[in-house]
Amino acid sequence: MAAYDTTRTAPFGAISTYRFIQFVSGIFGGLAAWNDARVTRNALAKLSDRELDDIGLCRGDIDLIGAGRL
């Protein structure tokens, strides 16, 4: 039985292109996460103290939730 070596090198520029696309998608992912946190903080800031208490939060927790630490 014959064995064939099927390992091929990547075409010229393929790895650089892949890393560039990863870099750009990382930037867009970071912007999307920042915007989601901003929208969450704004929505929680509009709630009254009573409404925040109903869901188990206080005003000081809003920034922690937006930063993903709570």
Automatic annotation (TrEMBL):
What residues does the YjiS-like domain cover? 31-63
Q: Which domain of life is it from?
A: Bacteria
Q: Which Pfam families match?
A: YjiS-like (PF06568)
InterPro entries the UniProt entry points to: YjiS-like (IPR009506)
Which protein, by its recorded name, is this? DUF1127 domain-containing protein
Source organism of this protein record: Gemmobacter denitrificans
Question: What is the phylogenetic placement of the source species in the record?
Answer: Bacteria, Pseudomonadati, Pseudomonadota, Alphaproteobacteria, Rhodobacterales
